[in-house]
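Pasting two entries for a bug report.
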Amino acid sequence: MKLTRVLSVFMVIFAALFFLVPLFATFNFSLRMERDQLSFAAYRSVLESNTFIDALSFSALASLLAILFGILLVVPTAYWVRLKLPAMRPVTEFLSLMPLIIPPVVLVFGYVRIYGTDSFLPLTMTQLGTNALLVVGYVVLSLPYMYRAVDNGMAAIDIGTLTEAAESLGASRARTVTGVIFPNVRSAIVSGAFLTFSISLGEFVITSLLSRPGFGPYMVQIGQDYAYQPAAIAIMAFAFTWVCMALMAFFATRKPGQGILPGFLKRAKT
């Protein structure tokens, strides 16, 4: 028992060092832009660039749209399959894993062929259409993780009983999904949203081949031209991703009518 506890502590320390040492090394390197002193000159150089702000904003907005469309696609599908088509679960699980099998470069060239100049729907000829294809690509890339998280969340609740109870009270099927199923799988949806955001924010292949001004191509380009700024961008991207995830978790766990401020801040304010 004692040996097991020691091994557990060792594994936790090893995992923490595996994660923290490269992060600290990157942060330390980003502070050495000026000779013989530590400074935030690399961070100032990055923040003074409008291209950085534009690329980060573009990818963050596209990632949030991918989360929204992913939720609208996956939650009703997983709910309907579990409720009405349980025999189709292996098929839907296999289809949800297809993005892990098909490389993103094949996916994006398929988009270009289907929605190119000779297509009946030439989305690649306009910026709005290309941006829509980018968001769809992000939804497809994150589909295995979003579907698995939501499906596991639905496995933990009794969907049949909840649906019958809602319908016995006069709720429509859409009201049942939005008012009963969504709140009960909220934590699973938040988990899927975390994974979608972290995958989409720095995605490179689809963003680059569709010629979109995303954060992934920007990081690659800045890495070819500068030495210290890429390290600063990596640290800022890491912090930005965690802040966005914390905000999503905060707002997703708020109960209806609870408000934004935590309870102790409300009491201090009054």
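Entry 2 (this is the one that rendered wrong in the viewer):
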Amino acid sequence: MIFFSILTNFLYKFFIIFIVLICIIFCASMLSIVERKFLAYFQNRIGPNRVGWNGWLQLLADGIKILFKEDWIPPFSDQYIFCIAPLISFLTLLFVLFTIPIKKNFFIVDLNIGILFFFMMTSISVYGILLAGWSSQNKYSLLGAIRASAQMLSYEIFLGLSTMGVIAQSGSFNLIKIINSQKIIWNVIPQFFGFITFFIAILAICHRHPFDQPESEQELSDGYHIEYSGMKFGMFFIGEYISMITGASMITILFFGGGNGPIFPEYVWFILKTFFCILFFILCRASLPRPKYIHVMKFSWRICLPLTLLNLFFTAFFILYFKK
């Protein structure tokens, strides 16, 4: 009887994880079409409009194209690492989504160290890009991988520092407790500079425009994934949109009160806020020019890092003053 109960519980959790996984991959895939539609709208041009009603079946055409493309592995590459790299890039930030509480009682894993787990997986994600660039034995791939590593090391420092004010106010690393601490006022107001720097760091870690120098087409011909094709390229492609969803979800939880909101259910508010953040990512891509790589690095160390330190200093001062 006990064995049957354990087995039923295991199968139920496995079924939930499977459904959530399918939903995440489908949403990440659809996001590629949504992005192209909004980019066309923002830039006053025609987007995808040939496949299906108003172009909304373009995803199906892209999927068939990727599935039937030759999955070529360069003979001069380190083949084992070449195959492992896209898998690392695809899975790392996907695992973070399993810890995201869409509702206060709807999550797969409730970690007391939710934010630390997010930092850990973002740090690991750069290994997928680094290994892809190194194993491809291509100078453009290697340059893109080096750029991604340096960018990641620079921006993850103030990614962590920008959340310290939120953690200090809530007194916990647990994502649900951080949401509960924002019942009166969202963190975006008292932690506005923390929010700005966190948003910039998320753009850089996701390699979203204007921080897409590791794969800039004009200089590096797609950078670290230039030698990839077929499903391996598809894993890099979908992985980028999964990282967008993860980043937008973390912004929603840390600075916009998660699912807190009037009238509508919590999951509706959570989805609306996350989608709004993703739209802002797309708007940045549509409107901002790509700066030189050296300017990106200077911006992180000379502007963002001092700003996060000042924000942390004033947050600590106010907490100590009012507690006293």
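Dev reply: Rendering is fixed now. As a check, the viewer should reflect this: The CA atoms of residues 189 and 255 lie 8 Å apart.
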